[in-house]
Write a structure and sequence with these properties.
Rossmann fold, 2 domains, six-stranded parallel β-sheet, 16% strand, binds adenosine monophosphate
Length: 403
């Protein structure tokens, strides 16, 4: 039973760190996934007879204002989030225009069971990202219990995500339901993976994925490498990759990773073939062929039919699957087939009893685009946090509650 579900919030004020860093255009929220993900936690506190004080960051106000002086703090307000949250919950949401003002203290103190208060953007203060203790202590005074439900920022040692936990004793700090779900899915893959364990790593850059591949060499039986990053590996092996994406300063790294995998007996699967394009565009002319024979001037923008087959077989035979990064430029119709095929194989393996975790921005976007979100075991809400978790790093937001 979870610590959060076990706790009775009756008569208490729960100070909940959420990740409401949602896309907002002209005052309207264009994707409220992160907000909806936090609703079960909020509802449980209210149902117990507790009050809810929510805090979040939104964007990078101080950094952006420095670069673009026409912007002001008001451009980064969480006010539209308060309005939208009220609609989602069907109840009033109070708002406080400064997260550490007397007004915030007064509003928090006056909050009654069943009521909700959202504090203004924490990043109006540089102290938030600096992990300032005084700032964290001020925030901590608002609540009786601290709940961290912001997995998306769990890799940051910020005031509201980690430092604040020091001001709450045992039994007064805990994960929310979203964070519990994320941590338990990630730990299941990292520590209790049933074999065969296949990691599917795609996306644009090798440099972003070196650490995760290195760490997975200790855990996985198979690593599938697709997307733009695959071509750096081919070039490292002496192939001609035309105009495909390549990081020339990572050729040695790619070679080293392949050698390490061989030494450890981990099977690395690179795509044999690709869909080629004569330019990086949705209306490009396309052809297909082996990755050893990419015509000069052309580039690989998706895995080919043979790679789809081989990868699918490996995935379908797996008991544990971790997927981070698309197989091609799935945003363009002509280059989405590979990613869709892989999503299909992950769904089939899951239906067959495998545990599958999709984590990391663009593979999550792909799974949602192709409507596979409910056909995999878990879709993570935290891109950077999930990546760092699988790089083997201790996430400050998790450590602050657990240690
Ligand atoms: P990442 O954020 O590193 O996971 O990269 C995701 C991005 O990689 C997506 O926007 C894809 O369009 C892009 N991508 C995937 N495959 C390729 C490719 N073969 N060439 C160029 N970009 C790619």
């Amino acid at each position: 039973m979870s610590a959060f579900n076990n706790h009775n919030f009756k008569g208490q004020k729960a100070l909940i760190r959420v990740d409401f860093n949602v896309p907002i255009k002209e005052g309207k929220i264009t994707d409220d996934t992160r907000m909806r993900a936090a609703l079960p936690t909020i509802k449980k506190v209210l149902a117990d007879g507790g009050a809810v004080i929510l805090m979040s960051h939104w964007g990078r106000p101080l950094k952006d204002i420095e670069k673009k002086p026409h912007l002001t703090l008001a451009d980064f307000t969480l006010k539209p989030v308060a309005t939208h949250l009220a609609t989602l919950l069907g109840t009033d949401v109070q708002f406080c225009e400064d997260c550490v003002s007397d007004d915030a203290s007064a509003k928090a103190a006056a909050l009654q069971p069943g009521q909700i208060l959202l504090l203004e953007n924490l990043r109006y203060y540089k102290q938030e990202e600096k992990g300032d203790k005084e700032f964290a202590e001020k925030l901590s005074k608002y609540g009786d219990v601290y709940v961290n439900d912001a997995f998306g920022t769990a890799h940051r040692a910020h005031a509201s995500t980690a430092v604040i936990a020091d001001y709450f004793g045992a039994g007064k700090k805990m994960f929310g339901l979203l964070m519990e779900g994320e941590v338990s899915a990630a730990e299941k893959v990292m520590n209790e993976a049933q074999k065969p364990f296949t990691a599917i790593i795609g996306g644009a850059k090798v440099s972003d994925k070196i650490l995760i591949i290195e760490n997975l060499l200790e855990k996985a039986t198979d690593i599938i490498i697709g997307g733009g990053m695959a071509y750096t590996f081919f070039k490292a092996m002496g192939g001609e990759i035309g105009n495909s994406l390549c990081e020339d300063d990572r050729l040695e790294t790619a070679k080293e990773l392949l050698a390490k995998a061989e030494a450890k007996g981990v099977c690395i699967h690179l795509p044999q073939d690709s869909i080629f394009a004569d330019k990086f565009a949705a209306d490009a002319n396309t052809s297909s062929g082996l990755n050893t024979e990419i015509p000069s001037g052309w580039m690989g923008l998706d895995i080919g039919a043979m790679a789809c087959d081989t990868f699918s077989k490996v995935i379908r035979d797996s008991k544990t699957i971790l997927w981070n990064g698309p197989m091609g430029v799935f945003e363009m119709d002509k280059f989405q087939h590979g990613t869709k095929t892989i999503a299909d194989a992950v769904a089939a393996a899951t239906a067959n009893g495998a545990f599958s975790l999709v984590g990391g921005g663009d593979s999550v976007a792909a799974v949602n685009k192709f409507n596979y979100a409910d056909k995999v075991s878990y879709v993570s809400t935290g891109g950077g946090a999930m990546l760092e978790f699988f790089e083997g790093k201790q996430l400050p937001g998790i450590a602050a509650i657990k240690n």
